[in-house]
Structures
1.
Amino acid sequence: MHLIFQIPELILEGGIIAVIGYTIVFTALLILYYTFLYLGKVLAWNTRRRLAQAGKLSHQETEIEVTGEEAAAIALAIFLCRDLHDDESDVITIKRVSKVYSPWSSKIYGTRTFSR
Amino acid sequence: MNARKKAITVFGIIALLVGLNFMVFQIPGIAEPVSNSTETVNNSAPDGVGGIIGGIAKFISYTGFRNATPGHLIMIVVGLFFIFLAIKYEYEPLLLIPIGTGIIIGNIPFFQDGGINLQLGIYQEGSVLNYLYFGVVKGIYPPLIFLGIGAMTDFSSLISNPRLMLLGAAAQIGIFLTLIGALYLGFNMPEAGAIGIIGGADGPTAIFLSSKLANGGIINGVQTQNLIGPIAIAAYSYMALVPVIQPPVMRLLTSKKERVIRMKPPRSVSKLEKIIFPILGLILTTFISPGALPLLGMLFFGNILKESGVTKRLADTARNPLIDIVTILLGVTVGASTQADVFLTGGSILIFILGALSFIVATAGGVLFAKVMNLFLSEGNKINPLVGAAGVSAVPDSARVVQIEGLKYDPSNHLLMHAMAPNVAGVIGSAVAAGVLMSFLM
């Protein structure tokens, strides 16, 4: 006994469009994936080369990538370091007051004003 | 609890629509528009008392009370319900207030008989609403929304872990299976393509494609229905329902062991990479799918404005006032386009059913593909399959759902940053899919 499934032509056409369309969407994002996978590697290689040229990269260091969490921790540490400590000039200057009269040194407050 | 409340209310609307749709359109005579009102219209202006009476009669024949049909009243109730949900539960208020008010505006009954164009309704040529609706029909608003989205999106998580892009592609299966489902249910090819895009879980993309493929015109030799309203309402409703639809599917397809997989923290991304991403992304994706140019062109343009660092003013405008203005216009006109005679059809109900299925299929597609990827990945590099569910766009709701689900099984395992990668890749994927469907079906 043979079972024959008749798929309507329109649905078959839709199926073909679906398969091709899905493949195209996948291809587009696959290309983006490979592009940025290798772009990241190229940029990391370039950074490593520049650091090596500047003598700042030791041969033992193979990993130069910093995770976002580490970057956030460093940024927070810098922020706290700057924020918690005041910047002081360390220069102490005593300015001479040019006024002759000052209430702080006024004699009038040292005398009794009420007569007995 | 909140999600359950949302589910009950939105499915309540759908049930109301289904029930009333059958009541109104199955009982002969109820759905017929008021046709005898032409008798009262008298364009001549006789003098004296007769003239005054004629004027009053004409005024009455023009009022909403005289022209109301049950369909109008149902839609006004739906509009009020949307506004209630937005205010009471703060449930997507930025969308539901404009859409809800738009539904009321679009369903105020007015005199439409005798071929008289009062230039009032959204479908009447020359009316103010019709001019504003032009932005929907011609697909102008969605690219402008994409410009704003681009200016506010940070692609760092995607750049730092590009393989998660594939999850954004995998979840687009929802679009294509829904297309086949819509054909099976009797929609023609362009309409099926427009309905399929609901599975992309992206409101502007859904409006853009439905304005091209199901706008009531003749597309590729096929007469289409105007499905912009139902498709837009279905897309936005289900996007808001992501916290209800996705978790059961995610739990069904993953084991407890898989749900607690810890992923490597994303690396920090340099400024150069952030600038290169939108430029290369624009060129590569639009070369493959030029149909997506209006959407992806604007998305990546917005992102260049943000990441270049020298156009802060333009980026600020794109992501704040511009997107706000367009959201207002888009929301109110999409709402108004749900005019009862266009919206209350059996087709709308089928669209709502297909939309729900498409979200489920898309979620399953993302989760299952993550599991397949894990078969090829080494122990330390495995992907938590929950992250796959974020491939369905719906930014940022689906990423938030992944984070919440992940925390349920391991309170210290934060998946949000990982989930944002397939989430934004899903936006790109659904736009590419829209472009592909346009090039096939137009």
Note: The mean pLDDT of chain B is 85.
2.
Amino acid sequence: MSTGLVRPYGDTTGDGMVQLSFTLPIPHSKVAEGAAVQLANKMGMDPALVVHAKAMGEGFTFFVVYGRVNHLVDPSTVEVVERDYPLLTPKEANAAIKRSLRRRLVVVGGCIGTDAHTVGIDAILNIKGFAGEKGLEYYRELKVVNLGAQVSVPQLVEAAREEKADAVLVSQVVTQRDAHLLNTREMSAAFREAYPAARRPLLVVGGPRFDETMADELGVDRVFSRGTTPGEVASFIVHRLAGPRGPAGTSTEKAS
Amino acid sequence: MARTTSTLGIDRADVRRARTLARQVGRPIVDLAQRHTTVSVERATLRLAGLAGADPDGTPWVNRLADVVRADVGLEHGVSLPVWDALLRGEGDDLLTLAQKAAAGSVTFRVPEGKDATRARAAARKAVGAGIRTIDRQRAARERMIAKVGDAPSKPWIYLIVATGDIHEDIPQAQAAAREGADVIAVIRSTGQSLLDFVPEGATREGFAGTYATQENFRLMRAALDETSRELGRYVRLTNYASGLCMPEIAALAGLERLDMMLNDSMYGILFRDINPIRTFVDQRFSRQVHARAGIIINTGEDNYLTTADAVEAAHTVTTSQLLNEYFAKEAGLEDWQLGLGHAFEIDPEVPDSFRLELAHAMLARELFPDAPLKWMPPTRHMTGDIFKGYLLDGFFNLVGALTGQGILLVGMMTEAVVTPWISDRDLALQNVRYVMNAAGNLHEDFRPAPDGFIAGRARQVLGEAVGLLEEIKADRSAPGQPPLLSAIADGTFGLMKRPADKGKGLDGVAPKAADYYNPATEILEGA
């Protein structure tokens, strides 16, 4: 990205226009609208225009505010987790596994804790897939064991041992009280305890509300966030487990 | 010579054929359910007899008592004979004392015979009968209250969810939602509860993505909504979940505490929670018998199929499941007005003609089940975080609801998949519903799909595929000696999930009934 500094765009370059909606816990009145403008001003919107205000329930008012911000953003200083592995087609992934492992690569997946939302893990694992890409079950050289919903951490560790898992995929959708973070830490700790460091399967978590930069903090090898496709997950696993080894270990980087 | 009064050009003979197949597939499952009992059915029976509360560790007394009885004499006779025999032998003055003594190891149970058995049966029937009379009184109280304060003013009933995890937080939210226009309040359950083999006790303030279903939480919420119903001049209904390993007990508690609707699907637990199929079918039959008696409307879970499978390809699995749910429900004594058969608006909006497909599916459900309220579920899968697009999608969902006379409309939130609904989300969602109902609520009077058009054709196609699937299930012999439906569930016919009858959670809580099995609750519920 070499766009330099930018401002929000409404209908003219540099106009800085943004929209905002929120609720204040006060009944609708002129004072309430003034309070909404005050909030918008404090958030850096100036001028701020309350375009809609509506009483909601008892003692609440909902606002839609349009206004100008004068902040500039600098895309060159934004930190993101860029994909640091090549994207492979299923065929390429299968070939890499065959060449490097000479057996099928075992992936065990599930939703841990009380989370019953299998939509994420299913999108990645089920043959049907997601976003036009087939799920991991479609890969001939991947053996996929989908444990489904509400798998306890001990069950997951047990299944990983039983299946001799090379990689463990965990999906977490429910985020109430940070359940996704707590569960992930519990899971990674359990795997560290159950396996010697060199033998531990690759740990991958995903879910719509994860921050991809948190892998180290959560004790996992990779965090995937919203919009991740099966191909990305498969490519990552293959890159880490069936990529070329030894002195030429960095050669895959060139492919990207 | 078909009598085609159908607006979709559906041949009545096809509908009869579908129902016949559902009966043929369902009947062996009912036989199987009748031949087994479960720990939860037995504990529900004890709850109906008035045993409540939990030990200091939070384990309910019904669990403590049932566990000891089972250890002494097995589950196959039911707990009623051994328990009331022990009471008659003076082992305890009442059920609670008996449970406490049993937990302490100072009671030994036996299976009474002869005159002792006759006396135990009579005593058990009397005790359980009292609980069922409470359920009857609660049903009458509901009817009285509706007559006095008034019912929901129009259909569909507006169904809103609260899900804070804390009953004392849920109550003001539920009351606010009712004031904003909700006709039905559903308290979402903590996600872990379906796999607990006990019902937690007391008022609870900690839950994940929902609040535990407990008798006390039921009572508190119903009392609060009674107050709000009187204030608003319309009866606000309360919904919870009779599902998971404790389905029968939760159904009993719902009847005792006057809940009005319960989510209660015949196969959901098997497919989506990996609960043992036999356990589920036994438990759901008992729970539906309780719901029938209590005047509770059940909501089935067909929408879930569409959250995992493709909503176009799997449309016929919804119809198939609705037909099975209808059969199992009616067999258990539920009437048409109690069947909130589920379906959902889950087709990918990028699919061409997605709205026409949704309309076809919803019209098919309406036509197949003309007297059932039907539960219409909003889009979730294709709600992406683009709240603006989501709001439009919810509007189209509401329009299908208006066009097809849905009885229960779960209000879609534009922030689905983003946050648990904010106060503003709920208000905007209700504005969406009101606008559509006000603008197009009577459109069904004018709207007739072209007999040879896309919508009618699609509806006929889905029904045809459902009949085909039922035929396939009926012919399934892959698990020899088992009902074909169990074979079909085992080999992944539904939602691609393979659930063999000898696997799954809660299997150890199932027992085949002995010749002297006795359960007064079943006897009363089936005799009524």
Note: Chain B touches chain A through 29 residues (CB under 8 Å).
